[in-house]
Design brief:
Layout lengths: L2 H4 L2 H12 L1 E13 L2 E8 L9 E2 L2 E3 L6 H13 L5 E8 L9 E11 L1 H7 L7 E4 L10 H18 L13 H12 L5 H11 L2 E7 L9 E5 L1 H7 L9
Parallel strand pairs: 1-6
Antiparallel strand pairs: 1-2, 1-4, 2-3, 2-7, 5-6, 8-9
Length: 240
């Protein structure tokens, strides 16, 4: 390279692009929860090598967007939802991870309330919910991406009150305990769990009970973000 071009950022950028021929994508692990367990939203791949196999929703990053915007675009397209919890997890860069060529992908996970998703669903969203524990294989390296995002979710669930993103606005104490048990893969003592929740002082009694249930209706609660922000400390949120 001649001296006059050596420090020219634009010329260097063009040279790198022409020599390396790589693309950057985002893959989105969209978690949902219902009384049956933790779910993930999957589509069927249309890539010839993986035709018809289950895969995560994703896309190449457009030249005019950053990573978060790309992930938000994929999330909205597949769910119809915006303003949901989303976190970047890890880059996956194995040379042969994609049959089309050199593609580095950035994994994000998001938390979606399934009833909200159902209310937004329309014909262009060819995606279905699958039980996380039933998934043994996915196209590309998407099983590894799913596993890494699940590990991050489990970590964050202990640190922050993100589990409430997966629940309806009003929920019972049994529902929130079941969520923690499902995501963390542990059995929690009922009395101990409720004692810890009470000590956090982040729930408010809605003054209502469940309706149309075939058992004694339980009290309904709501997560109070304002109380949480006032009491927020460094360290664990729910230390089991």
């Amino acid at each position: 390279m001649s001296g006059e071009h050596r420090n020219d950022p634009e010329r260097r950028k063009d040279r790198i692009a022409s020599e390396y021929h790589l693309a950057v994508s985002v893959d989105c692990v969209i978690f949902g929860y219902d009384e049956e367990g933790l779910k993930v939203l999957l589509i069927k791949s249309d890539t010839p090598d993986y035709q018809g196999q289950l895969s995560l929703p994703g896309d190449l990053v457009h030249p005019t967007e950053n990573l978060k915007n790309a992930a938000s675009r994929v999330l909205e397209y597949r769910t119809g939802l915006t303003d949901v919890y989303m976190e970047q997890v890890l880059a996956f860069s194995e040379v042969d991870r994609h049959p089309a060529g050199r593609v580095i992908t950035i994994a994000y996970y998001s938390l979606v309330e399934i009833d909200e998703y159902a209310a937004q669903k329309h014909s262009r969203m060819e995606a279905e919910w699958y039980d996380v524990n039933a998934i043994k294989e996915l196209a590309f390296d998407h099983k590894a991406i799913l596993d890494n995002c699940l590990t991050r979710l489990q970590l964050r669930l202990r640190e922050k009150p993100i589990g409430f993103e997966l629940l309806p606005d009003k929920f019972t104490l049994k529902q929130i305990q079941h969520l923690y048990e499902v995501v963390l893969g542990v059995k929690l003592d009922k009395r101990n769990f409720r004692r810890k929740l009470k000590s956090l002082n982040v729930l408010e009694d809605c003054g209502e009970r469940q309706k149309a249930v075939n058992h004694r209706p339980a009290k309904l609660y709501r997560f109070n973000m304002e109380k949480y922000q006032k009491k927020k400390k460094k360290g664990m949120f729910m230390n089991f």
